Amino acid sequence: QVQLVESGGGVVQPGRSLRLSCAASGFIFGSYGMHWVRQAPGKGLEWVAIIWHDGSNTNYGDSVKGRFTISRDNSKKTLYLQMNSLRVEDTAVYYCAREYSSSVGRTFDYWGQGTLVTVSS
Amino acid sequence: EIVMTQSPATLSVSPGERATLSCRASQSVSSNLAWYQQPPGQAPRLLIYGASTRATGIPARFSGSGSGTEFTLTISSLQSEDFAVYYCQQYNNWPSSITFGQGTRLEIK
How far is B45 from chain A (nearest CA, A)? Predict the structure, then answer.
């Protein structure tokens, strides 16, 4: 069965860096685009970033552009999110999600359980 | 940015009854809309994509409709496990524009 397991969250001071990982299993990781989506405490969902199945292209939400970098290692079946210059407003649960592509569009069909990032002094 | 607005913010419904949740887009997203369910403390789960196509394993009591700017998620006969927060999401200009609604909390009446 498809599994996505995030790790790397924790408490970090503003301005510092953190790297999240998402270990995938149960599917051919290198065949799927992957995303990061976050959710601030008690708030809704915010899309963060996408990486193409082969790592050839990436895209970011406006709030993280220039600070976060998404990457992947298909040989290790692992997705990453390098977060630099962290801000208090980056505090959230970070989910990795698999992209599902069909004739009626693309969306997120599997999600991990999330890892909490808290940015605080 | 396309803004998605869900209504109502909270919906109170009795088990066995029908629930109707709405989602409005600030501009047309065609049928590029999905619905997710998020139980308390859990990750979101895909319910509907393409505005009306049920995802794998989703019960038939969940149905989606609409196109353009107005969308509806209907749950025909509420079960206890259906009480959760529901989000709509547009993906009209994938991947440069992916936005979610603020959510509707479906609670037991």
Answer: 7
